[in-house]
Write a structure and sequence with these properties.
Helices cover 23% and strands 38% of the residues. It is built from 13 helices and 26 strands. The termini are far apart.
């Protein structure tokens, strides 16, 4: 049987009448790994080692590196026949403070489309359908699983033509379950060096997950990668150094019956509570706190957090509470995904975003990102971004009639560059996010700097309104900082 083996032979092979197809590329990649028979015979895969994962949407600045989780142990068991995997890992979080998060055991799993986690001190719990789709796709972000599926010859699967791309042969493969993969094969080694798929990420919309493979080693009849690196668009997602075994004994990876029979959780209606802090000032609670401020001719809200559903519920509540004035501004404390997750919804509702100047380009990109796999409120109600920014350290004032609020940048904050806090001088209220969380057991690594900056600015504060937690007197912050100082 005549075979096309590499790009270097492509011209000669074509001359001899061998048309290079996507199936040829897949078969040759399988041969380079150890052969189609050995791949097809593989039923289990176990990878063990160490690595690093990354905390998406929580970097210090929009273009800064992501905070990391250091994986002290990492073990991934894969049932190739039944489309299941389970990851057991112990990790330490390093989030830009002097106090890393203590070692945490973490168990994540997928059984076909049933995603679930196993808490260290609790029962397994089913996760939402999007996580199920993502974990199912992750099964095929390994050369063994991807090639095994592509070689099965299922009539519902399709293999596209070959595309030449910078030293690689690239083939688009759609598996029988509809999962679309892009396989890149190194033209020199013949090994599958990269796998890509596209998914919906709640904050960023359509994203490309790309997994690269290198440092191949022999494991039985097969060559398998020791170094696996993954990105989500431009962000690093995971880096692993592993050794692998095939056809070794693994535990039962099926979802527990109570998990498999449970419905995947869905977004529940958001209930927004309100509490008046002063005339024309309310805290709106919806998991995260927002603050509604009434001016003589308009209103403004601090923070459009979490997601579309939360932001839209807060906006609706704000308009309901002050129905005769337009809701004109949303003040964003910082760009982290949990605090800016409702910005697109706010833009769709016609609100002007006020944020720090270092976030401008980030938000301009965010509102333009495609969301074909998960259309949101802005997709369905497109509007241009209207944005005003705080320059340098501020201040930035919103004044209308007898009401003034002053927005300051929180200098030297290790949590987020361009972090803003909102001061209501007349009411002596200060709104902040993430730098002080007054609830039992909450760590406050940023509280000392927060207090120092408030004092340096000479702000007169009686109450603090955190985006996380309850409204507290300013003395609560002073007390926590004193406790931190005694323990240092």
């Amino acid at each position: 049987m005549k075979r096309c083996l590499s790009l270097t032979m492509l011209l000669a092979a074509t001359t001899l009448g061998c048309a290079r197809t996507g199936q040829n590329v897949i078969e040759d990649a399988a041969e380079a790994m150890g052969g189609a028979a050995a791949i097809s015979a593989a039923t289990t895969l176990v990878m063990e080692g160490t690595g690093t994962t990354y905390r998406l949407g929580q970097n210090h600045a929009p273009d800064a590196d992501l905070p990391i989780y250091e994986l002290h142990t990492y073990r991934k068991e894969v049932d190739l026949e039944n489309q299941r995997w389970r990851i057991e890992q112990v990790r330490t979080g390093h989030f830009g403070t002097s106090r890393p998060v203590n070692q945490q055991p973490l168990v994540q799993a997928i059984d076909r489309d049933v995603a679930f986690d196993v808490p260290a001190d609790g029962d397994p719990r089913r996760l939402n359908a999007q996580i199920g789709r993502d974990r199912h796709a992750d099964l095929y972000h390994h050369p063994l699983a991807a090639l095994k599926a592509a070689l099965q010859g299922d009539p519902e699967a399709t293999v596209g033509p070959v595309i030449e791309e910078e030293g690689h042969e690239v083939v688009e493969v759609t598996l029988a379950d509809g999962l679309h993969l892009t396989l890149s094969v190194d033209a020199v080694t013949g090994l599958l060096s990269r796998i890509e798929s596209t998914t919906h990420q709640p904050f960023f919309g359509d994203v490309v997950i790309a997994t690269s493979f290198s440092d191949w080693e022999q494991s039985g009849e097969l060559l398998l990668p020791q170094t696996i690196s993954q990105t989500l668009d431009k962000y690093r997602n995971g880096d692993f150094s592993v050794s692998s075994q095939v056809n070794t004994e693994i535990q039962d990876l099926s979802a527990p019956a109570e998990v498999a029979s449970a419905q995947a959780p869905v977004q529940q209606p958001v209930e927004v509570t309100s509490e008046e802090l002063a005339p024309g000032v309310w805290v709106l609670g919806a998991g995260y706190n927002s603050v509604l401020i009434e001016f003589p001719s308009y209103t403004a809200v601090v923070e459009a957090a979490r997601n579309d559903q939360t932001a839209l519920a807060v906006i609706e509540k704000a308009r309901e509470m002050v129905p005769d004035k337009p809701l004109q501004y949303v003040i964003n404390t910082h760009f982290h995904s949990d605090h800016a997750g409702g910005i697109r919804a706010a833009v769709a509702e016609g609100l002007t975003v006020i944020t720090h100047e270092i976030h401008r380009a980030f938000f301009e990109e965010l509102v333009m990102r495609p969301r074909t796999l998960g259309p949101d409120h802005l997709t369905n109600n497109p509007k241009p971004l209207q944005i005003e920014t705080v320059s340098g350290d501020g201040p930035y004032e919103l004044t209308d009639g007898d009401r003034t609020i002053v927005i300051h940048r929180l200098k030297e904050d290790l949590h987020a560059a361009g972090m803003l806090m909102v001061h209501l001088p007349k009411e002596r209220i200060l709104v902040e996010a993430d730098v002080f969380t007054p609830r039992p057991g909450a760590a406050s690594p940023f509280a000392t700097n927060f207090l120092a900056q408030v004092r340096a600015l000479g702000l007169r504060v009686n109450r603090i309104v955190p985006v996380h937690g309850r409204v507290v007197p300013f003395s609560a912050l002073q007390r926590v900082v004193r406790t931190i100082a005694r323990g240092s």
